[in-house]
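Practice problem 4.
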């Protein structure tokens, strides 16, 4: 319930910001945020709360469940940006950012050209 409320509030704020400004979401992701490596027992501390958590990364089922949860979260985030009409660029720390950035700009340029072409065709007399 709280996550749904947070997502709805985020959506409303993003959509409102995008109406007034050209908003582009840049997401920087590390591979370990998407999949846990098999490292055995890890002791992690939450930087915000100080909570200490032990994670057993030796269990393939737990790693798979983590990867599936993260994949759903990424899909939800992509859907949130798309629904709010916000362009998004996803960069990864293990890959050169230039190709992702260039692809995003190329996609944006093509979308603008198609939009302008549509406006020009719509304005002609038949």
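Answer key:
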């Amino acid at each position: 319930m709280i996550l749904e409320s947070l997502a709805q509030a985020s959506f409303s704020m993003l959509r409102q910001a995008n109406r007034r400004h050209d908003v582009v979401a840049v997401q920087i992701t590390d591979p370990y945020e998407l999949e846990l490596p098999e490292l055995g027992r890890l002791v992690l501390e939450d930087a915000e709360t100080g909570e200490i958590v032990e994670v057993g990364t030796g269990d393939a089922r737990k790693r798979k469940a983590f990867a599936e949860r993260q994949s759903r979260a990424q899909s939800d985030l992509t859907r949130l940006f798309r629904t709010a009409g916000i362009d998004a660029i996803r960069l990864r720390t293990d890959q050169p950012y230039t190709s992702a950035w260039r692809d995003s700009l190329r996609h944006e340029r093509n979308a603008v050209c198609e939009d302008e072409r549509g406006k020009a065709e719509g304005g002609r007399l038949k």
